[in-house]
Structures are given as structure tokens and as C-alpha cells.
């Protein structure tokens, strides 16, 4: 310990599976709270070694070639965090402790270091160490299906929720836990908007219920309007160039819908009391809604421990 500082009153912890998940799913929210002075901590569980590579010149980094993609993605993630204004990022258990498991059912699920195979209590204990240090009032991760069924997303959910259980036993649990979500009404609108489009991400799907994600609007707890940060989110996504091609349909949607698409993100509330909201379903517009500024106490941390 080289010195002790005090973190801001509001502290947000996000638990994601791979580099790029943070930017696609929660980038606007992260940038919004970082810009507002909250302490935003990102924990990424793997290096994303099994990802596809959309930069031809880097094809040799693939798992079946040099197997160096994970190391390269560390740099991409650092650039993405810089774009989002996030200065506190950690890899669960240290960089490379857990390996990208690949899609469900592949042989890569059985790799000795695959996150899908990780001992739950051991991994949760590593996340608990972060909770002890940061004392976040709010934690964000995926739902039990990992949003769309990827084994590492499912495992990230399990690890995060087990860590919260352990934190409850110590009296240091976050006041609220959110899961990333997409309202059914937004998906319905997307299906309609892209009908007939040459770059239709929903091609072949006629009903939003056919998608592996989508939450009834009444079950959504929070809608974070971070449209002022849509450019930061797009910059963070572009930092993950190996994973998101420059001509991705994500950017096409951004071109059509701009800040609304890039800057608005939704969540369900898994743990804690819902705060004041608005609109038909009383959606919160702040993940800290109803959380006292002094609950839990401000967290003293070793200055050298932030990374």
C-alpha cells in the first residue's frame, strides 16, 4: 500500500465475459456514470481468445494459429475503456486466469482453463475481493441465460450472483444488482424498421419471441438515457476492431437511429428495491435510484490498487 484514497460516493461494478461485451451492452451507461463522477469498475472474466477476427492482417492471432488473440484484445479493451472514461478495469483472477470457452457445445468448452469449467466458489471469491475493495452500491451483469446463451456469459452471471451471496454474509453486498436487458417493444420496433433492409440483423425472424433475448416491458426496471455519450460508446466499439467489423450492422443502425440506438440501455432489477421511476411502467432513469449516498460507507482503497 503506497497510499490511501477515498472513492466517490457512487460506485458501479460491471461484470462482463469478454472484451467488447462491456462496450456493446453497457458502454453508454459506463460512460454516463464515469462522466458524472461515479467510480466505474469493470471486471472482465476472459481475454476472448476464441473470438472471430475481422482484421485480415491479424488472422494469424487466431486460436488455431498463434493463439495470441487474447493478448491483442487486452490492448483493444484498454482503448475502449479510455473512450468510455473508465480508469478501473480488472481481469477476474488476473489476465489469462480464465480462457474464453467459445460458443456452447464446442470442444473449447472443455479446455482446462475454460471459464465455463471454473470452480464457482473460487471465481466468486476473486470477485468478492473486488467488492471488498470497491464496496459498490450497484452491480451489473447478465441474466441467468447470459443474455443470449453464451457459456461464458452464463458463468459470469453465476459468478457475480455467488459473489453477491458471499458479500451479503460479510455485510458488504451491493444494494442493487441489475441484469442487462432489451425490452420486447424495442425488438418489435427493430424488426419492423429493418424489414426489407439489405443489412437486416433480424433476417429470417418474423417475431421477436423467436430471438434468444427480449424482456417484456413490464419487467424492465431501468432505462438509462445516456444519449450524450453515444459517441463515446461508438468509439469504444470501434476500439474492438478485431471483433466488430467496420461495416457492422451495429454501425448501420447507429447511422439510421444515432444517439437513440447507441445511447439508451435497459436493465432488469434482480436484487434490491426499485427506486422512483417514470412512464407507464415506472422505469428508473438512474441505477442508483433509491440508494442513499452513504450506503454503504465510502470505500477507502489503496491508491496503487487501481488499474
Features:
alpha/beta; 307 residues; Rossmann fold; 8 helices; 33% helix; single chain; 14% strand
Kindly describe this structure.
- It is a single chain.
- With 307 residues, this protein is α/β, with parallel strands linked by helices.
- The protein has one domain: Rossmann fold.
- 33% of the residues lie in helices and 14% in strands.
- It has 8 helices and 9 strands.
- It has a 7-stranded mixed β-sheet with strand order 4-3-2-5-6-8-7, sandwiched between helices.
- Helix 4 links the parallel strand 5 and strand 6.
- Helix 1 packs antiparallel against helix 6 and helix 2 runs antiparallel to helix 6.
- It is globular and about 50 Å long.
- The C terminus is likely disordered.
- This is 1D-myo-inositol 2-acetamido-2-deoxy-alpha-D-glucopyranoside deacetylase.
- InterPro entries: GlcNAc_PI_deacetylase-related, LmbE-like_dom_sf, Mycothiol_biosynthesis_MshB.
Strand order of the largest sheet: 4-3-2-5-6-8-7
Let me know the number of strands: 9
Provide mean pLDDT, rounded: 90
Q: What class would the helix/strand composition place it in?
A: alpha/beta
Distance between the termini: 14 Å
The CATH class: Alpha Beta
CATH names the topology as Rossmann fold
How many domains make up the 3D coordinates?
1
How many DSSP helices? Answer: 8
| Estimated helix fraction | 25-40%
Apparent shape? globular
CATH architecture: 3-Layer(aba) Sandwich
Q: Give the radius of gyration.
A: 19 Å
Strand content: 5-15%
Cofactor: Zn(2+)
Catalytic activity: 1D-myo-inositol 2-acetamido-2-deoxy-alpha-D-glucopyranoside + H2O = 1D-myo-inositol 2-amino-2-deoxy-alpha-D-glucopyranoside + acetate
Family: Belongs to the MshB deacetylase family.
Keywords: Hydrolase, Metal-binding, Zinc
Amino acid at each position: 500500500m503506497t497510499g490511501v484514497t477515498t472513492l466517490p460516493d457512487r460506485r458501479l461494478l460491471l461484470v462482463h465475459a469478454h472484451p467488447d461485451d462491456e462496450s456493446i451492452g453497457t458502454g453508454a451507461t459506463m460512460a454516463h456514470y464515469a462522466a458524472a463522477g461515479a467510480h466505474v469498475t469493470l471486471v472482465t472474466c476472459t481475454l476472448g481468445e476464441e473470438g472471430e477476427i475481422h482484421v485480415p492482417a491479424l488472422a494469424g492471432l487466431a486460436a488455431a494459429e498463434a493463439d495470441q488473440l487474447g493478448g491483442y484484445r487486452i490492448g483493444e479493451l484498454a482503448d475502449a475503456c479510455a473512450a468510455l472514461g473508465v480508469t478501473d478495469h480488472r481481469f477476474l483472477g488476473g489476465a489469462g486466469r480464465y480462457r474464453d470457452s467459445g460458443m456452447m457445445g464446442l470442444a473449447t468448452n472443455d479446455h482446462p482453463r475454460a471459464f465455463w469449467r471454473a470452480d464457482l466458489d473460487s471465481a466468486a471469491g476473486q470477485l468478492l475481493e473486488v467488492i471488498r475493495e470497491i464496496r459498490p452500491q450497484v452491480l451489473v451483469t447478465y441474466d441467468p441465460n447470459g443474455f443470449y446463451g453464451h457459456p461464458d456469459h452464463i458463468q459470469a452471471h453465476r459468478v457475480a450472483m455467488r459473489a453477491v451471496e458471499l458479500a451479503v454474509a460479510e455485510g458488504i453486498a451491493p444494494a442493487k444488482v441489475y441484469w442487462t436487458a432489451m425490452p420486447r417493444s424495442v425488438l418489435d420496433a427493430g424488426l419492423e424498421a429493418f424489414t426489407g433492409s439489405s443489412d437486416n440483423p433480424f433476417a429470417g425472424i418474423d417475431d421477436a419471441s423467436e430471438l434468444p433475448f427480449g424482456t417484456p416491458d413490464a419487467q424492465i426496471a431501468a432505462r438509462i438515457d445516456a444519449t450524450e455519450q453515444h459517441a463515446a460508446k461508438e468509439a469504444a466499439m470501434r476500439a474492438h476492431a478485431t471483433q466488430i467489423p467496420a461495416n457492422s450492422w451495429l454501425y448501420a443502425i447507429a447511422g439510421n437511429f444515432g444517439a437513440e440506438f447507441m445511447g439508451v440501455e435497459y436493465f432488469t432489477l434482480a436484487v434490491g428495491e426499485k427506486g422512483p421511476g417514470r412512464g407507464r411502467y415506472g422505469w428508473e432513469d438512474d441505477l442508483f435510484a433509491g440508494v442513499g449516498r452513504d450506503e454503504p460507507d465510502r470505500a477507502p482503497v489503496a491508491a496503487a490498487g487501481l488499474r
